[in-house]
DNA sequence: CCCGATAAGTGTACTCCGTACACCTGTCGG
DNA sequence: CCGACAGGTGTACGGAGTACACTTATCGGG
């Protein structure tokens, strides 16, 4: 009798997609470090071991989550030259990854050879080949792109965690400044030049999107030059 | 009486450096994933909590370990032009990091603002400034370098774990090949072209060092071009 | 109409992790 | 000689991933 009400509360018997979606939401909202099997189960109103009926283990869960995000990336635009196709695709990937910052860490931390990732890489290679790149050059170009293919760069000094930290007093600020000035004068100089209006000393105040596109275009320009001049690795190796 | 012998066995009362060195050795030999405070303590013939007298916590241990490796990187060569100075330094860093593969993961997984890392970055910036680069261009150039400053690239498909895995039968090999051919034809094509003599299907058979230098030189060439033509970010932004 | 197979969810328990905290011990300067 | 202090110990806690044995719900066929 009372049974019926409880059953209605938690219907839809939980499947792989619901598990993955919930995991993505949890990682988005609480951070990847808060994503544990136990926490995820709790979020789904279920006992931890129930998840293992839908994913083999945590590794596979992470793989699946990456797959979900990779699925959000726009497919290659058709009818564009290779440069624009690649560029737009990467910027689309970047938009997806910026919405889900945890993906970066997951992609970096483990070898990822899931169908979703392989599919993305494959279509990526396809854009170069379709653009007339030789298989040889395409290979090296893919290595040169590296993780930039996903739309992210290694951030040396990620200041994104600053919001939560305690407000620094003027004295500490001054002391840090002094410390930097004597120990790391070059970093300081660059950081000072980069800061626009906010008063932060190191990092930020610089336009990440601009930095990314700067490096990306630099690479793409290089690729194009090599392509135009019929570069081959054999010739390059002989020239050394 | 027997006391004396035991005490002689484990002399030298353990200090920060010994802890860090042991941690580095352990990570080198057993992999970073096997490095736990308990395991490390055991290796040092000490109880786990003893370590906390020398490092605040595991994070600081990892920071210290990175510091040890960064300390192994050659200082900038003097009297070279910026390009050679940067190139040689990066290749030196690469040699160090290849000896200690775990550093890559540690550097990637966390924001690293230790003195050792800051010092490295600072001296790195210094090489560009000394080469006549504007502060502005240096800033963007550092972003473009990203983790390549450390001598590593994001490896999409790291096959280094293959040695330990079970030998695949001819049938499985063939099945995998078939799978690849239909699902990821472009990856397959590139992989086939890259393989030299070994029979592996995906990855390896390609010269990682060559790939790295290919990308590095491409970037350095771009940097040089920008430098020569007096590039500034302001002008670049206006041009868009 | 029941029945057994299969899928989904549960409960308990194990091992391993980082580390807080109270304690002991050996050394050394006053 | 003594007391402070640095270095090492022992115990314990909470949290992680997950193995394994179990109940329960569903449903097609005799």
Observed structural traits:
homodimer; 240 residues; mainly alpha; Arc Repressor Mutant, subunit A; 0% strand; flat; disordered N terminus; DNA-binding
Provide structural commentary:
The structure is a homodimer of 240-residue chains. Chain A has 240 residues and is mainly alpha-helical. Among the domains of chain A are: 8-55, Orthogonal Bundle (Arc Repressor Mutant, subunit A); 70-153 and 207-239, no CATH class. Helices cover 62% and strands 0% of the residues of chain A. Mean pLDDT of chain A is 88; it is low at 1-10. Chains A and B meet through α6, α7, α8, α10 and α11 of A and α6, α7, α8, α10 and α11 of B. Chain A binds a DNA duplex (30 and 30 nucleotides) through residues 13-14, 36-38, 46-50, 52-54, 57-58.
Secondary-structure element series of chain A = HHHHHHHHHHHH
The N- to C-terminal Cα distance of chain A equals 82 Å
Structural class of chain A: mainly alpha
Which chains make the largest contact?
A-B, 57 and 56 residues
What sort of overall outline of chain A do the alpha carbons produce when their principal axes are compared? Answer: flat
Annotation field: number of helices of chain A? 12
In angstroms, what is the radius of gyration of chain A?
23 Å
Question: In this structure, how is the largest beta sheet of chain A organized?
Answer: none
Report the helical percentage of chain A. 55-70%
Oligomeric state: homodimer
Nearest-integer average pLDDT of chain A: 88
Beta-strand content bin of chain A:
under 5%
| Poorly predicted regions of chain A | 1-10
Could you give the count of β-strands of chain A? 0
